[in-house]
């Protein structure tokens, strides 16, 4: 049974969601305050953290930013704030998904399951490649270790899985729909910015040029590709 810590100050809503998830194979612990959430999560790390944004003591975006370097599992924002800016900010700060509270419970369940699957989604099949090396970049799927010029690059769960998928099909253009279906189990609706934001974060961490990327390239109207030649120095 997968464990979730759900940081939510609305007791009635938290109870309803916890009950629904409990009927579907999750053990949910509710943490009602933002200023005590991080200590609770790190004291007994769950498989997944679900965060509201508007919380007493400390907001969910701050928790996400502070927690991300210390917690390797998926962090999901569950909020009523539906602006593009909040979604982009949440993803930039390290959230793996941003879900509105108006999302139907079965869809929420599917997206949480997809996040938990994603940790191993890009791990190689038995006998398959477990490491990739492109010039100064080395990726190890067993240890989930990424090194650039010998230095460790710290990636979130979602960032590593995205990089592994790109690396495993290096030189091939992968559409947003390909990436979303594999990594999150959902189809691209033409509006979802999560893949674009994750690509932007990867480029920044991997020393790519943000205006003229040469390592993770954008193919206009088609998608993204990891260039094997972009890592030679």
UniProtKB/TrEMBL annotation:
Residues 3-116 form the Response regulatory domain. Coiled coil: none annotated. One of its GO terms (cellular component) is cytosol. GO terms for molecular function: phosphorelay response regulator activity; transcription cis-regulatory region binding. Residues 129-228 form the OmpR/PhoB-type domain. It is found in: Cytoplasm. GO terms for biological process: regulation of DNA-templated transcription. Residues 129-228 bind DNA. The modification 4-aspartylphosphate is found at residue 52. Gene3D superfamilies: 3.40.50.2300, 6.10.250.690, Winged helix-like DNA-binding domain superfamily/Winged helix DNA-binding domain. SUPFAM superfamilies: C-terminal effector domain of the bipartite response regulators, CheY-like. PROSITE patterns: OMPR_PHOB (PS51755), RESPONSE_REGULATORY (PS50110). Keywords: Cytoplasm, DNA-binding, Phosphoprotein, Transcription, Transcription regulation, Two-component regulatory system. This is Two-component system response regulator RstA. It comes from Crenobacter cavernae. The lineage of its organism: Bacteria, Pseudomonadati, Pseudomonadota, Betaproteobacteria, Neisseriales.
């Amino acid at each position: 049974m997968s464990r979730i810590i759900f940081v939510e100050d609305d007791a009635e809503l938290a109870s309803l969601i916890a009950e629904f998830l409990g009927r579907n194979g999750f053990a949910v612990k509710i943490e009602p305050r933002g200023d005590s959430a991080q200590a609770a999560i790190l004291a007994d790390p769950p498989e997944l953290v679900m965060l509201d944004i508007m919380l007493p003591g400390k907001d969910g975006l701050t928790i996400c930013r502070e927690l991300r370097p210390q917690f390797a599992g998926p962090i999901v924002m569950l909020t009523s704030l539906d602006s593009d800016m909040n979604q982009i900010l949440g993803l930039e700060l390290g959230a793996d998904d941003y879900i509105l509270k108006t999302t139907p419970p079965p869809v929420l369940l599917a997206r949480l399951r997809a996040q938990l699957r994603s940790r191993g989604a890009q791990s190689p099949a038995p006998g398959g490649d477990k490491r990739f090396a492109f010039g100064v970049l080395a990726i190890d799927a067993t240890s989930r270790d990424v090194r650039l010029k010998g230095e460790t690059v710290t990636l979130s769960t979602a960032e590593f899985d995205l990089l592994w998928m790109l690396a495993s099909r290096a030189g091939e253009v992968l559409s947003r729909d390909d990436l979303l279906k594999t990594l999150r189990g959902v189809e691209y609706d033409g509006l979802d910015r999560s893949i674009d934001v994750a690509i932007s974060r990867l480029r920044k961490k991997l020393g790519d040029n943000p205006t003229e990327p040469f390592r993770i390239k954008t193919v206009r109207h088609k998608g993204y590709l990891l260039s094997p030649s972009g890592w030679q120095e």
